[in-house]
Amino acid sequence: MRSAPQILSSLCENLQERSRGSPLPFHAFLELAAEKPAFIFRDIFQVFHDMVKEYVGDGVDEYPDDPESINYVYYDCSRLFIEDTDHPFFADRLFANRFVNHVASFRRGAQQNRIYIFEGPHGSGKSTFLNNLLLKFEQFANTEEGASYETVWRLNRKELGLHPESEAHTLLLQLRGLAEEDPLVPVGVTRDRLMGLSRSEYLEVPCPSHDNPLLLIPKPYRRQLLDELIEEGPFKKKLFSEKQYEWVFRANPCTIYEMNEDQIARDIQNYVFSVNFESGSVERCD
Fold first, then answer.
1. How many CB atoms lie within 10 A of CB 210?
2. Which of 49, 82, 124, 195 has its CA 20 to 30 A from that of 152?
3. Per-residue pLDDT tens for 237-252?
4. Where along the chain do its domains lie?
5. Among 209, 191, 198, which Cα is nearest to 154's?
6. What is the distance in angstroms between the CA of the first residue and the CA of the last residue of the chain?
7. CA distance readout (Å), 120 to 50, 74, 85, 129
8. Taking 50 as the threshold, does the pLDDT of residue 71 lie above it?
9. Is 52 exposed, middle or buried (0-12, 13-18, 19+ CB in 10 A)?
10. Letter string b/e over residues 54-65, b meaning 16 or more CB atoms within 10 A of that residue's CB
11. Residue 210: pLDDT above 70?
């Protein structure tokens, strides 16, 4: 019979294996972005919008020719709030229209930091609504249509915390703690094993800000690289002109990026060179 620490370690490993996929090299991610740009060029708000769209679909206007219609169409929310839930939530037409219209705004552009309050009397289903919504969002995120990507930093354990002049110093010190033994962990079980980390020279840590890997491309290079990466078509036109994609060109990466900025810039420059020139050629980059 296995001991409790061994059972706990096995459980943590299984949860880690279930909750995340294998990291992709950056060049493989760019190839995926070129192949499926509509899925890659999404922030979390746009993924949430796509989730609601997937479960609810388009509304049905039952009175299209009625001049007195208030345009409150019928939305079938059963897949979102009723099916495969412990406690179903029954959205009336007024709530469904307001909810869908509000979610539609998530797709149109950058969002401000806000807290949304759903007000109602005791027992009206506020918690049920939110729990079911989060459940379906989690399920959608684990499907191919709902997949999203974030940066995973591969950091040298020995170099963590060696740059006190950087704004990322505090964060790196915290990450360094992940690589060390924790006295609260049972004997024989390292903290790295509980965190799903290997005992190799490098530490793989998901980005604390959950940045899209596209933000690793330095701002001066983004427009040029994406112009060459994305094929001509309707999506490329939307990418460079519509407000919902402004974050691709304006957003800044997290502070860990500062520690690797020079190396990342060289890697991006090498990639741009590889897609423009033949192997073995010599060109001058100004």
1. 13
2. 49
3. 999 998 889 889 988 8
4. 1-42+149-278, 44-141
5. 198
6. 65
7. 27, 22, 21, 12
8. yes
9. buried
10. ebbeebeeeeee
11. yes
Q: Give the model's pLDDT for residue 177.
A: 55
Name the DSSP class of 60. B
**Residue tagged 């399920």 (tokens):** 139
Give whole-number Cα distances, 7 to 13, 190, 198, in Å: 10, 14, 18
Helices H, strands E: what count in the chain?
13, 2
Q: DSSP letter string over 97-159? A: HHHHHHHHGGGTS------------TTSSHHHHHHHHHHHHHHHHTSTTT-----EEEEEGGG
At 87, list the tokens: 């406690």
Tell me which of 89 and 198 has the higher pLDDT: 89
Q: Whole-angstrom Cα distance, residue 8 to residue 187?
A: 12
Q: How confident is the model at residue 83 (pLDDT cuts 50, 70, 90)?
A: very high
pLDDT tens for each residue of 249-271 = 988 887 777 666 666 666 666 66
Range 42-58 average pLDDT? 92
Kindly give, in sequence order, each residue whose CB lies less than 8 Å from that of residue 7, ignoring residues fewer than 6 positions away: none
Nearest C-alpha neighbor of 153 from the set 56, 245, 256, 61: 256
Q: At residue 76, what is the residue type?
A: D
